[in-house]
């Protein structure tokens, strides 16, 4: 009996792995494999044109990061972008979700309208905003009509990154709004009814019931926001035509990785080291957020 049960268990395990094999192959080829290859490249000087070669240089690529001014600028720009965009898009998404969950007239229409930016290609949105940000664009025309000073959104180093931030906050908040909206509808009405009996007003109910109940969802939204914002590339690339300008003000880590990997000869290994460093930063930020959210949930 014991031998038959063990054979049955092995057969079921084999069948399970057989059904999982397509997903495992995809995971190995397109996720684990590339990650391991990037780690391999980060410790080598790579030559991909002509005579292909991989020369082991140990930690030289990582040491080079300490003296790379553009890498420091890219890291600072990325951190600044993350610190501003993640809280703003999270707060905006929560406010929009709470508003649309309040039972207002025409809320279905507004849900569709608010969600439309999420359905639009990031490249298309960027081109639209570039037209709006142009010196003769819609925003400057409106500012001029109101008698306010106009700005060179695309050419001023002090404004260019902020322009990308504003665009991304507006375009990414609706996606997280839908997540919040689904979570809001799962909060029991009895909690709000009990709060009303205790004399709580709308603000108190929101702060003392809604926000704590949404804590796990907020943790998820923040983590997804961190991962997405650390990987800013396409908007910065389109805004600056791939240069990270003006004056490196829109240069991000991923854009710099692209430049070193595909625009400069002999720096593929260094680009891999920079990408590996970014992965470590994202992982660290995510783990810190998870630990912080766990401590909050215990409270």
UniProtKB/TrEMBL annotation:
Main location as per UniProt: membrane
Localization per Swiss-Prot or TrEMBL: Cell membrane
InterPro entries per the UniProt record, alphabetical: ABC_transporter_permease (IPR051393), MetI-like (IPR000515), MetI-like_sf (IPR035906)
Coiled-coil positions: none
Mode of membrane association: Multi-pass membrane protein
GO biological process, one term: transmembrane transport
Domain ABC transmembrane type-1 positions: 75-289
Pfam family for this entry, one: BPD_transp_1
Top-level taxonomic group: Bacteria
The keyword Ribosomal protein is annotated on this UniProt entry: no
Alphabetical UniProt keywords: Cell membrane, Membrane, Transmembrane, Transmembrane helix, Transport
CC per GO annotation: plasma membrane
PROSITE patterns in alphabetical order: ABC_TM1 (PS50928)
Transmembrane annotation, as ranges: 21-43, 81-100, 112-133, 159-183, 214-233, 268-288
Family of the protein in this entry: Belongs to the binding-protein-dependent transport system permease family.
Protein name per its UniProtKB record: Sugar ABC transporter permease
Taxonomic classification: Bacteria, Bacillati, Bacillota, Bacilli, Bacillales
